[in-house]
Amino acid sequence: MDLAELKKRREAKLLEHKRKKRAYYLKTKMQKKQSEAKKINSVDYEVELFGGNFAEKLKEIAQKQKLHIQSREEIISKKIQEYRDKKQEYYNIHKETRLEYDKEYRDKKKEQLKEYRKEYYKKNKEKILAQQKLNRLKKKMEN
Length: 143
Description:
mainly alpha; 5 helices
């Protein structure tokens, strides 16, 4: 076999592969369209609305919704109660560590605030003194 024949075979196999791939794509696309068409059930609203049992259907739907909500309400209230119990238990177990952490955090924040105030007063010392001087002069003028 020479190089030209190998290239022809390779090209033929590639074209055959592309045809198979295209056929598979089209087949799956058709299947999807058919499945979507099956899912859509058309409702004749003329019959539903103006048929004799519209009010009964509304009552039935409302009753089903009410039952569903009531069943979910019980489950949700149980979950909320379980969460509260777990949370209370957790806080009781970790109370000391939490209080210790809070104390450390407050001390750390106090230190940061002290340092911030020192820096602020150093930077704005002249402005603060000038403002205080003006305030004193205003008080003297008023008296």
